[in-house]
Structure prediction request, 340 residues.
Amino acid sequence: MAPSIGDDDMAERLVVSSLPLETRFPPFQLRQHGGFWFPEPILPDIVAVRAVFAPRPSDVFLLTFPKSGTTWLKALAFATVHRADHPPCAPDHPLRHRNPHDCVEFLEVPYALTPDADAFAALPSPRVIATHMPYSLLSEQIMAEGAGCKVMYVCRDPKDAFISTWLFARKTAVAAAAEAANDDEPRPVPTSFGMEEAFELFCDGRCPGGPQRPHVLSYWEASRRWPERVLFLRYEEMLGDPVGNMRKLAEFMGCAFSGEEEAAGVALEIVKLCSIGALKNVEANKSGAQNYVKNEAFFRKGLAGDWSNHMTSEMAALLDGVIEDALQGSGLAFPAAESM
Ligand code: A3P
Prediction:
């Protein structure tokens, strides 16, 4: 049974407007909660997750810091779990008609969870649900010892995650500004967003989901403590060996590819179906939208190292330094710009 809302949760919901505010990172105003910065519209849902969401031991959570490969992970996990009902070669496969974000929902999507309703309760098991929530806010139920849920975390070189975040923010800001102008209480959304300002905010952790370092680090540590519950994947390694990583992902979710499937090349078919090139060509990804965010905005280059086309070497070294300091002694590292 889902836990009911206590006075503490209610109090937490009521003080959202008094949480520290950051207005410079479009498209949303950000509020700081539990040490992380969240787009204001999803804060009530983050509180509601703790209040009403009832995890099941068979749940698989797809975890990412924003702009680190969420869309890809959603596609891969969805295609893998549902391959019996939807063979990857089938012309009517859902991923040939729908955006991956329409196939796997975010836990913190606005209005999915309200103080007395959990839209996820209607989903059949095993559920695959995505979230950007930091470990510290998930740990109470989803990561609790007895919950049994599994987590697949994808991390990405912070320099590429930053560039992807900045370009996405610029793309979505104009549409968000138009939408915000129609609000009952219109708020200004900055539509020109320079890289230097974005960089400073990102390094300070004042970006959606930020700061990135503790986000990545806590899931990394959890994967070392409980490898059977937390699978830690790297975007760059997935690009380098997509089929090998697919096998890992399927095995971890408890649906490893059988010898017959291996012989038939099913893993490779899923990788092809979910490749950025294939997804970009899907009509729903060219013309559809998630609220005011056009689906095409989720598919840009999908490369490792694109930061070098945008950032100066000084910026790269500065960010490397920030990351290196934060990860020191953890056993987790990202290649420094100068070594690439
Ligand atoms: P770039 O902006 O560097 O191209 P998220 O899905 O977490 O929002 O991350 C978006 C990033 O993942 C973007 O990176 C996007 O191009 C990339 N991406 C989207 N779909 C992908 C896919 N199928 N394979 C690899 N990368 C993908």
Notes: Confidence is low (pLDDT under 50) at residues 1-14.
